[in-house]
Amino acid sequence: MLPEQNSAKRNLRSGLNLIFAQNPVLVTGFALAPAVVGTFTLKNGTGLSLVFAMVTIPVLFLASLLGMLPEKVPQFVRTMACVGLAALMLIPARLLARGIAPNLFDSLGMYFSSMALNSVWLLRAPLCQEKKPIWALWEGVCHTIGFSVCVLAVSAVRELLAYNTLWGHPLSLPAKFPAIAYAFAGFIAVGTAAAVLRWSIDRAHDVAGLVQRKRKKWRVGR
Amino acid sequence: MNTLVGLFSLLLTALVLENAVFSRALDLTALLVVPFGRKGVLLFGLILTGVTTVSSLAATLLNAAIGGWESVLYVRPVLYILILAVLYGLVCLVLNWKKKEWFSSHSMIITIAFFNCAAYGAMALTVYSGFSYLESMAYGLGLGLSFLLAAFLLEQGRRCLSICNIPKAFRGLPAELVYVGLISLSLYGLVGHQLAA
Fold this sequence. Notes:
heterodimer; A: mainly alpha; two-stranded antiparallel sheet; 2 strands; 74% helix; B: mainly alpha; 8 helices
């Protein structure tokens, strides 16, 4: 295999790892507050994903650029610069969110703006300072996809069960559980989603191990 | 006397009925994931309490200054976060100057205590509720202390969970989230049913 193909394969694997095996919400437990409380409709989930992308990707990129500064610039100054950019990114995010739903900002309340202080970039930014900007960008994209996958799945299930709708369109389901929209159900929904993801990853590892053993046996037999 | 009783009841409301962790999931990551250790969580809770108290007051002051301006609608959250950044910068400068070693070993705790949902939430909620200066400080104090109460309850929960036979997929974070959800459900019974603001 060519070296370029090898490195592309490695990048893809690391990306998939960040999305599933190290999912920012369900596995590492970052940005839990908006994922728990804000995800009671699919529109909310989409809005959260949008603001997460608008904040996390540029901030991780900036963190990587700040890593090029001389060492005498203290870490807290770099953090303040990242916080400033994250706060400013809320303005375009809010303008774009109006395109998804006019009342999205009110529906999410403080969770929309608190995404600017999400723990994903806060804990990853110091590590991104040691990486090249392109890698920080790649990491930001992977974290965004991981966050979006989790938030969209949880919000779709909660909207279906709580209101019997999907993206506001009514669906005929046999039962309705309005309590699913409350925060306590959000904790339980995210907890269950985390358990389902862990079970799926374990099963995938089991299957991969089985395939590897079979392949080895087959080679020895030949 | 009435003012004192009012402030105390506000503090209790923020501490129990509107607990930052159980009713709004604020700062859940710091509580469940970040490995601070027992002493670290206590220190984090104390710093967070200071941050929520001061930032609530700062948000109320800022709101009094710019409250009438319609054009600041989009900029208001940005200003709140910038207030947190300025407070953080000041604290870091002082600590870096006076207690450099302590600061370098605790810088991550301080950073997370300043920049989290609870610190921002304290500012947004006090302004949204229209509290006076004293009330906003009492509410901010209660919100910070509610994190410590939640940390204590979660510690007890962890002890109980460690002796239970939990399915493998639910061990750790999933079981803790379900546990927090059940406490939250019990608090909803006290507060009544409404979506968190």
